[in-house]
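Take just one protein record:
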Amino acid sequence: MVQKVNRSRACLKESCEERSDDDISSLLYSTFFSSLMPSYIKDASGETIIFNNAYETLIFPNKTPLFDNSGVNLCDREALTPFSAEDTEVLHGKSVKLASVLDNGLATIPVSIEKRPLFSPDGHVLGLQCQIVLNTQLAVADSLQQKLLLRAVMDAIPDMVFYKDCDRRYAGCNKALELALGMGEAELIGQSDDVLLPSPLRETCYQADMAILGGQEKIVAEEVMSSPEGPIYLESIKTPYRSPGGDIIGIVGVSRDITPHKKKEEELREARKAADAANRAKSDFLANMSHEIRTPMNAIVGFTYLMLNTGLTPKQENYITKIQSANNTLLQTINDILDFSKIEADKMTLETAPFLLSDAFDAVQTLFADKCEEKGLSFSVTIAPETPLRLEGDILRLNQVLNNLVSNAIKFTTEGAIAVNATLGKEEMNENGDKIVTLCITVKDTGIGIEPVQRQSLFDPFMQADTSTSRRFGGTGLGLAITNRLIEMQNGSITVESAAGKGTTFTLRIPFVAGYASDLASPAGDVDIPHLQFTGKKILIVEDNLINQQVAEEILSSRGIAITICNDGREAVALLQKNNNFDLIFMDLQMPRMDGYEATTVLRQQGICDEVPIVAMTADALSQEKERCTACGMNGHLAKPIVIAELDSVLLQFLHP
């Protein structure tokens, strides 16, 4: 054996002596470059001078070639050799072997690095050679570990995860999808949606898959699957699966079962429908109850007014006056309930119009002066000199707030005084350039007062300071709740200061737009309303209730007006088609055969009496009824029971005495 080795060495030496240096260099060069082991060589200064193809492929996979056609390196050589920490030791003649991890941008690869010095024939170090040995076993184990980890992660996801190839055939999935389809991954692989899915869903999935394969980066879609328990709603997200080179080689999808969410949405929709239906039923009930209560009340109020204008004995007049007072209390209770219902249903609206603050305060003075005098209370209503009088806002709601507070003050005060005072708060400009003034209004009494613990629920609906209060003083407990809501709707605030037995002070702060004198129309109060006469004017009353016909006819006749009566809308339309020579029409709304809405619509559409104003005179007092009246062509709305001052205002507006 030894003899054979010696002969081989001798032959190799003889062969080398026969070859030129160029031949040997070419052979070594070719061997280095064709080696499957990634290698590079550095010179004594540590600069990389050459590396082979295997190294280039390992370090720069799928990149632009590092050499041009002449073989010249196109990159910085030093940047190509990440393993340089041990170079100094090797260049001093020491061989080095170590384990490391290579990250080439696509994967982390466990490797063994071997560096050894390159010597000249005389023993000097010319440079070093580095060889990179791929640790195949570690790489395989790491790859397997990553696959197992990926599988564990996928199976832990409760959503259904899948991936398909470019032919739209399933290439894998997680446990959640296996359970949903009732088949294992092995059965699923190779199948397509054409076999697995029903027609409507199959088409949806096809369109989404083709969009992803065509280059769309992401699709989110809602899908529906049938099941014996009912429809299953899925939210699916699909994205492309790309190769290291960026080519689309498949589809990755995630589908989430959103059926519980859909059921919850449906439950909420049904609950909303039920709530809306309940609100409509409540509104219908309130409208009906309002109508049914107001209709007989109209007769009571109307005949009470008419009786007070006849020759009565003092005793009879006392009785009738008390009936009238009870009527007003009952009407206020009904109005409170309706107002609170409108606020709760967000149906209460505010109007903005110019008004005089002095008009609002004069109305309070007129309304409550006699009541305070009857109880022996001092009553004062004052406006500080610096307070602007010309404002823009809702004077009706301001009066309602003041009336509620003063009425309460009178109710709970047996001796002493009640004072209403207005002063100017802050002034500022809004974004439209309007001057905004905040009024500070106080309503102060010397009544029974309120305990601190009772003030906490003072503005809650149906609450009174004490359960004995309603028994002693009466009331629904809605007045202050409505007052608070009305003030909030006007962007204002209300506070209360009180002590038991020492009286109460309510303080309102409400912003208004400062108005101008030219904005104000001439008030109806300039006319002497108690002696109004409209002699020669003609009014048509459309009313089905005989008692209310009599009430309206007698009140209007006392003002010199000629009255014609129709029993329903159809009768009124037939009459007006023959004779429309009327100055005003009072139209009830709820009537047999043809109601007031339909009658007004017919009259306006046919142009029978375009110039004649039509005013609803009805027991329907809700805001939506007023809106319906306007929509069908009416010019006004007068709620029953008829308030004489409001009736006279309507007559002034449309008849012009």
User: Anything to note?
Assistant: The domain at 349-521 is CATH 3.30.565.10 (Heat Shock Protein 90). The first helix runs from residue 2 to 18. Residues 65-80, 465-476, 517-529 have pLDDT under 50 and may be disordered. Residues 351 and 577 are 37 Å apart (CA to CA).
